[in-house]
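Subject: two folds for Thursday's group meeting

Dear M.,

Sorry for the delay on this. The cluster queue was jammed most of the week, so I only got both jobs back this morning. I'm pasting them in the order they finished. Each block is the input sequence followed by the predicted structure tokens. Could you check whether the formatting survives your parser before we put anything on slides? The first protein is the one we discussed after the seminar.
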Amino acid sequence: MKMSSRTVRHLAAVMGCAFVFGAAALAVENPTRAIPSGEKQKISGVIQGRDGENMRVRTEDNSVVVVDLTDQTKVEMKKGLFHLSHKKMDVTSLVPGLRVEANGEGNAQGQLVASKVVFDPTSYKASRAIDTRVSPIEAKTNQLETKQGQLENRAGQLENKTGELTTKTGQLADQQKQDEQTVGQVKSSADQANQGVSTVNNRVSTLDDYDQKFAATVYFKVNSAKLSDEAQKDLDDLVQKSKDLKGYMIEVAGFTDTTGSQALNEALSEKRADAVVRYLQMNDVPLRRILAPAGLGESHSVADNHTSSGRKLNRRVEVKVLINKALEGPTSAMNPQTTPPAPAASESH
């Protein structure tokens, strides 16, 4: 039986959509690039995210290289008008959004084992200004989410077209079976395209998508950056809970009340954050596990600075243990711990 011209047009439209979905699926393949084992290379690009010793860097050719940070990795910041000299920095300086140059050698996992990582101060200042918080990848994730929305919209259009084709009357059984088979193939292609986008989108967007696993808040006396016995105990408990975690990072942020000048408060909050970092190091927490400690001064107050009890709550350092969702897996249940109770309301001097 000959097919009608209208039916032929429908089938041609459906097959065209199937081609679009196939092309879309190929366009979002994982761009991760492996470094050959034993091969020395130098890469430059922007840090997408970190999970403990591993740092993902998106290079100039839009591929992603996993950089392995070790205790022997040297971290330096360029200095001077022409950036001819370098200043030694801690590995905690390597924050997401920072533009870096990494020298090293490939390992068996295709990672670049970094011997040296260098960055410029302009890039570092811009990255710290974001709020020194772990944040998801911005542009690439948005592009993939937009692409996924387009594919889902196309899938809806194909389903509507399927309904039109299957409700056609007056066609012979053989012709109807051919139409249904073609539509089934197109839906399968659409599902595969959506699955491809979903898989890649999840893999990329969760690089910097962290969940809070544990948290502790420690408090300080007026104009002091010394850890109290109670604060040390809270930090000890936090370290003990984190020992069995894989790929965790620790975020440290210091704060003050509004007493005194803004400049002095920023410096004091930095000292408080540094005191916590030093104590964590003394408890065998590797420095590479700690995100750049931030002193945020009198910002982000949690209580009224016009009262003694409120100011006491604001003189604090917040410590959070973060886990990359990609490492935890889709079936892991995250149960963030609550912040320890606030100290008593009486003012300490």
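Second protein, same layout:
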Amino acid sequence: MTNFYAAVTIILWGAMPALTKDLLNALPSFETLALSSSFAAIFLFAVNRRSKTLTCDAGKIFTAASLGFVGLFLYSAFLYYGLERLASQEACVLNYLWPLMIVLFSCPVLGEKLTRRKLLAVGMSFAGVVVIMLGNASTQNFSADKFAGALSCVIAAACYGLFSVLNKKIRLEQKFAMMIIWATTAICAFVAGFATENWSMPNAGQLFGLLWLGVMINAVAYLTWALALENSADTARTANLAYLVPILAVFVSTFVFGEELSATVIPALILILGGILVGRK
């Protein structure tokens, strides 16, 4: 079952950047985040209720909510900002700096050592960021917006990396924690959206896209990934399968959604994923 759970996760996460980019072309970013996060929280509430993992422990709820603000509200807000300004394939590749951010944050938070191999890994992956930045700078379409979008994706990766390390250190029950985390993300997005955006009623196709993003990608994919790691006899080997996600995302954005393949994406992807693999050995 481990391979099945991992395959489901990879397929769902691989479609996320292009699907989100498509939704953001029609809807404001905070509206997209608020509605999709609400669907995720409602779905996870049903899951927790059925498995009897709901709790009224105020301390756990506050901790999960704090993680949700840093790890998924800020992460998603910065990622969506980047997706609005970059091709989805570029945003996805830059976002996949988060495994390297885990390496960096593990040193001060978990007390792990920053070795020469880890420094090399960080250098390789950030070289991938430079490739995309320089590639955009060499085109006539380069603008401050594109630079801000790329920087926003890097900040998003840092937020998710910090969230992952803190989540590992705190060790909450994951189904319950993810419900609170997505609920917190939804609440924060509603507040930010009503303060800064003019919302519109999604049509039937957009509503289906939001439902798919919230339930399948935000909720189900996280659960299947947790199950894949939980049932794996070799956690590191299973975790390495996640590196197929940006490759699949580039394929989906190019061949399904019709984006033109950027000349900088492949070398940047090689550098970033190469850095991640070097850092794991």
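Two things I noticed about the second structure. The chain has a mean pLDDT of 81. The radius of gyration is 18 Å.

Cheers,
T.
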